[in-house]
Amino acid sequence: MGNIDRRAFLATAGASVSLTVAGCTGTDDGAGERTTLNVGQALSPVHFDPIEQFSNPDAIVGNRIYSSVYTYTEGYDVEPELATAAPEIERDNTRYTIELRDDAQFHNGDPVTAEDVEYSITAPVEEGTPLASLFSPIETTELIDENTIQVDLENPFAMFEEVLTHHVVPKDVREADPEAFGTSDPIGSGPFQFVDWEEGNFVELERWDDYWGDELPALERVRFEPIDESTTRITEIETGAKDVIETVPPQLWSTVDEMDDTTIYDSPSVGYFYVAFNCNEGPTADARVREAIDYTFSMDQAVERYIEPAGERQHSPIPTDLAEEWDMPVDEWAEIPHEPDLDRAQELFDEADVPDDWTATILVPPDDNREEIGLTIANGLQEAGYDANVERLEWGSLLDRAYTGNADDYNIYVLGWIRYADPDDFMYNLFHEEAEEVNQGVYYRDPDVQEQIAQARETVDVDQRRELYIDAITTLLEERVHLPSYNYYNVYAAKNYVQEFETHPIGPVNPRLLTSYNNVTLD
């Protein structure tokens, strides 16, 4: 984030953001000490290969297995993990030289080498995975020696050091059997190693006693179980069957809050949930139709009804706390959405010659709250005289359809984005044409906006980046390419016997079971 004070941002974002670490009802040793942690996830992971993009359920497990060149501190700064120090940056911010620790090993005993780092940051582009846009600025890599790598970029890339928090994988192991690596035999260099996985039922990890870090985890085992039904998750934490659960739904917030032996951990997260339009084909390719849809319902009321107190209204693609830290005009952007006005909506539909028999297709993931947002839009369209189908799809089916640009597949989709604390991560992946079909399906190709996003990525001047982003975001909001919706707080509920329970604003890095500042134990 250049000259932005990340520690100041952390103070405004909440010094801790919820973490999926947890206590335990599990294994005791002879002295009665509890050393197994049971975590109730909201959704099941589907793979453990970080070269492919992790969804949040994947990351909750995978981030315990793998290490990174750099990792996050308590805030948004990064510190060495596999690296010995900060990178040496030369050649006008386009050359990074990184030295690795010589004692780090993977779970199979192989050393972590510069070649493994090189593979981990180049494979996403070579294989065309959803992470390719993060690593596409890399021009060349050079292995100086077994523990030193030089990375040259085509242009300055302001958030490249944060990108180096990406996990490092053992090249030889993954190349030998990529499918097994992502499912039955993931091998990393983190403090926990993979034991077993039954998709939809559980994942089990155990402490890696040969961990090369400064401290071993206090926990001996961690068991993650997906519980997609919210009321069941709440029952599990209430009865003590789970020590921690991921997410507390708004409608059950007071139930958990009133439990004497359980604490809710919540604070703003680096996330963004939104309604996106197909700007490539069909009626929603016309900005008048997108504006008409904005007139058919109240996003404020939908967020108040379905999201609060587990989250808050958001008015731009940049998380509110991050946007405010960057001194962006958040209050002005909040004035752009319209109040409901069905007469004005119908005028715009008529101007755009939308046929009376049009039926909008709205895609939503397997998430009750985003489904409610989709249903709210459908109800508004029906009040304006148009039919709408809300299709709730499993993740694989949803992503196969939502990014095609084909009006037969979708007109609208409701999704979210959570990853790095830099505007580029949201703007490039959600709006730039290079991310089409991979991370977004809006196909909005206004040349000025495309150029502004690209320029902002390639400069390290914070003031220049700010102005470029403000211009691009204002256009995107006025054109209703997205209707920003809300941002969840990072919310977990944990039993009070969980000690050193820490949370982090960047949701995918949670749960942090062992860091430079915490080591979770069970009292």
UniProtKB/TrEMBL annotation:
Matching entries from CDD domains are given as:
PBP2_NikA_DppA_OppA_like (cd00995)
- InterPro entries listed in its UniProt record: Peptide/Ni-bd (IPR030678), SBP_5 (IPR039424), SBP_5_dom (IPR000914)
Any GO molecular function: peptide transmembrane transporter activity
Q: Any one cellular component term from GO for this entry?
A: ATP-binding cassette (ABC) transporter complex
Q: Name one GO biological process term.
A: peptide transport
Query: What PROSITE patterns would the database entry show?
Result: PROKAR_LIPOPROTEIN (PS51257)
Q: Keywords of this protein's UniProt record, alphabetized?
A: Signal, Transport
Give the Solute-binding protein family domain ranges.
78-434
KW Transport (keyword) present: yes
User: What PANTHER family does this protein's entry cite?
Assistant: OLIGOPEPTIDE-BINDING PROTEIN APPA, PERIPLASMIC BINDING COMPONENT OF ABC TRANSPORTER
* Similarity remark: Belongs to the bacterial solute-binding protein 5 family.
| Name of the protein | ABC transporter substrate-binding protein
Q: Tell me which species this is from.
A: Natronorubrum halalkaliphilum
